[in-house]
From TrEMBL:
<feature type="domain" description="PPM-type phosphatase">
    <location>
        <begin position="178"/>
        <end position="408"/>
    </location>
</feature>
<keyword id="KW-0378">Hydrolase</keyword>
<dbReference type="InterPro" id="IPR001932">
    <property type="entry name" value="PPM-type_phosphatase-like_dom"/>
</dbReference>
<dbReference type="InterPro" id="IPR036457">
    <property type="entry name" value="PPM-type-like_dom_sf"/>
</dbReference>
<dbReference type="Pfam" id="PF07228">
    <property type="entry name" value="SpoIIE"/>
</dbReference>
<protein>
    <submittedName>
        <fullName>Serine phosphatase RsbU, regulator of sigma subunit</fullName>
    </submittedName>
</protein>
<dbReference type="InterPro" id="IPR052016">
    <property type="entry name" value="Bact_Sigma-Reg"/>
</dbReference>
<dbReference type="GO" id="GO:0016791">
    <property type="term" value="F:phosphatase activity"/>
</dbReference>
């Protein structure tokens, strides 16, 4: 037969277990219903304060910056919002937690702490204080409840990270498709003009652009460009740039007007935050005249078969998009041209390094061209990239590589 005091004790234990089960039911039901992190935290806070014998609590949950304060209730002392991971030392054997906090912060008013682990990694720290000295607090249950909450929060964080990675993957895929559509599907291979391009992107989406537009039977435009930045922003800027260029070329052959309008369009769209290095060439087969503008790009190399010499095409202006109005502009011209080659390239080609940290460089490339003047573009590319690969000796490339070679008869 139980005495009154024993009955009272058993009743209190029963009531406490009933409250604990209610707390567990509320938090697990919210998790099963896929409630948001903020809702889960509010339910946990409510159950601790109402169903458990807790007056004050403070919950830090780990993220990429450290242990971040997620719940704070009933705390009078100043407490940090973030605790760096390296400032938290938990000795599992001795059961002591040592936290280095800046001067002015303190956890002294909180009498108990409970670390929350998952696979040997401390995911959270719960600080708490009981309502009174007489009531009991089941620390094992409180720790288990906290563990359920924190693992649910970690799973949500992982799911968000997975979704973000999927979003970025999709963005890169779209940008890559956009970029592929910008390049010409076929390059001419006829008696008047032979073209060969080698494009090696550093990543899935590069910042290089090349194009060749046959405006009429006697007129051809060709260009190469390098857009600042990578990924979707660079792909979109490149797409707008190509659309503007092709629209302008349909209505005019005036290189000065075309380049000035392109510069204004880029500057207006990006506010001077992005820029493009660009080379635009124009050749007229009828009068054998070459015109070009170099807007801050690596100068293409022009080779004459008859004179057995080469030169770089540097005349032009500064990079496009940096200024609202181009500060200077010069149109380069060459006349009476026949049987010549032009090699256009981006800086990724000459900025290749070998295992001695030597750069391939513009001079080395120009020297290679001089020893291989006016060869067929297909043959030139095959031989050159073998040399570049031998020079690099397995060192990873740091940028996109584009080489566009044209042979005019």
């Amino acid at each position: 037969m139980l005495y009154n005091s024993e009955l009272t004790t058993e009743t209190v234990k029963y009531q406490r277990k009933e409250l604990e089960l209610k707390a567990l039911l509320e938090i697990t039901q919210a998790i099963n219903e896929n409630k948001t992190s903020s809702v889960l935290l509010n339910i946990f806070k409510f159950t601790c304060l109402v169903h458990l014998n807790i007056r004050s609590l403070l919950l830090y949950v780990v993220d990429q910056n450290g242990y971040k304060q997620n719940i704070a209730h009933g705390i009078k002392s100043p407490i940090p919002d973030i605790i760096p991971v390296d400032k938290v030392k938990d000795d599992i054997i001795s059961g002591e937690l040592n936290i280095e906090v800046e001067e002015g912060y303190s956890f002294n008013e909180l009498e108990t702490y409970l670390p929350v682990y998952h696979k040997d990694k401390m995911l959270a720290i719960l600080f708490l204080k009981k309502k009174d000295d007489t009531g009991e607090l089941d620390l094992d249950f409180t720790q288990a409840l906290t563990n359920i909450l924190v693992v649910a929060l970690e799973n949500k964080r992982f799911a968000r990270r997975q979704l973000e990675q999927e979003r970025l993957k999709k963005e890169v895929e779209i940008a890559s498709n956009v970029q592929r559509m910008l390049f010409p599907s076929n390059l001419p291979q006829n008696g008047k003009l032979k073209a060969k391009v080698t494009y090696i992107p550093h990543s899935t989406v590069g910042g290089d652009y090349y194009d060749l537009i046959q405006k009429s039977e006697d007129e051809v435009f060709f260009c190469i460009a390098d857009v600042s930045g990578k990924g979707m922003p660079a792909a979109l800027l490149m797409s707008n740039f190509q659309a503007a260029l092709r629209t302008l070329l349909r209505s005019s052959s005036d290189l000065q007007m075309i380049v000035e309008q392109l510069n204004y369009t880029i500057f207006e769209n990006t506010g001077g935050e992005k820029f493009i290095t660009f080379f635009l060439g124009y050749y007229n087969f009828k009068n054998r005249e070459l015109k070009y503008v170099n807007a801050g790009h690596n100068p293409p190399v022009l080779c004459w078969e008859g004179e057995r010499r080469s030169e770089v095409l540097g005349a032009g202006t500064t990079i496009l998009g940096a200024f609202e109005h181009l500060p200077f502009l010069e149109i380069g011209e060459r006349s009476h041209l026949k049987n010549f080659n032009i090699h256009l390239y981006t800086d990724g080609l000459t900025e290749n390094f070998n295992d001695h940290n030597e750069e391939y460089g513009d001079e080395r490339f120009e020297k290679y061209i001089k020893t291989n003047l006016c060869v067929d573009p297909e043959v030139f590319h095959e031989a050159f990239f073998k040399e570049l690969e031998a020079f690099s000796n397995g060192v990873e490339r740091m940028d996109d590589i584009t080489l566009l070679s044209l042979r005019f008869a």
